[in-house]
């Protein structure tokens, strides 16, 4: 089973090199599709150089650029147009999520036991998460479970893995961080089960975080809107 890893990037120069090295070191058939979303901190230049240098044999790296910042959801939608794998995972570029955990996420999907797998920080462990982020995560997860009848422990996780055909026809539109609740809502509405796997290496960052409390409200609204949309 070929895996496509989508890496949305906006100003992550201090971590992208390590993220891409760790992805390149993973076993198995895979491609990495990076979308730089108008970075201004040198990420773009680094990616241009790395793409020109080439990757080890058997490892495909595609680097795409948005001329200006359009949001994490937009970057993912751009990448999805180029995916060749049978499965797709989102990998944030800031090292809060460690690529070493990807094989554990892929396992139930590769065995044919799941079509969608989320990595749960709350089934496993988290380090350094602020209480306000903890609370926002709990509220979003509980709201999802109440509205959609699911039994998730971590809706807003960055680690979301899908069999590619599950994403076809979802008509995703959200441009920024509400991409996450939109994809969760649409998948649950279609009747798919989301299987969760515990994460053990999640480590929250506080510097340079792009997400803010307004994104939490936007996510909450998207969960409600999608539930009652026909
Ligand atoms: N392409 C793109 N990626 C973004 C944007 N904002 C954030 N990201 C990326 O999305 C990931 C998550 O951002 P972060 O602020 O850490 O939010 P959180 O991890 O969801 O709490 C990081 O890899 C960011 O580089 C954006 O506007 N465009
Ligand atoms: Mg992050």
Q: What features would you describe in this structure?
A:
The protein is α/β, with parallel strands linked by helices and 230 residues long. The protein has one domain (3-228): Spore Coat Polysaccharide Biosynthesis Protein SpsA, Chain A (Alpha-Beta Complex), CATH 3.90.550. The protein contains eight helices and nine strands. The strands form two sheets. A seven-stranded mixed sheet has the order 3-2-1-4-7-5-8, with helices on both faces. It has a two-stranded parallel ribbon with strand order 6-9. The longest helix is centred in the middle third of the chain and has 18 residues, at 131-148. The protein starts with a strand and ends with a helix. 38% of the residues are buried. The structure holds guanosine-5'-diphosphate (GDP) and magnesium ion (MG).
Q: What topology, given as strand order, has the largest sheet?
A: 3-2-1-4-7-5-8
The helicity comes to: 25-40%
**What does the largest sheet look like?**
7 strands, mixed
Our measurement of the CA-to-CA distance between the termini, rounded to an integer number of angstroms, reads 34 Å
What radius of gyration results from the CA coordinates? 17 Å
Ions, cofactors and other bound molecules:
guanosine-5'-diphosphate, magnesium ion
Shape: globular
Number of domains: 1
Average pLDDT level:
95
Question: What CATH architecture would you give?
Answer: Alpha-Beta Complex
As for the CATH topology, it is: Spore Coat Polysaccharide Biosynthesis Protein SpsA, Chain A
- The total of helices stands at 8
Strand content: 15-25%
Give the topology string: H per helix, E per strand: EHEHEHEHEEHEHHEEH
Write the CATH homologous superfamily: Spore Coat Polysaccharide Biosynthesis Protein SpsA, Chain A
Judged by helices, strands and strand pairing, the structural class is alpha/beta
Low-confidence stretches: none
Number of strands: 9
CATH class: Alpha Beta
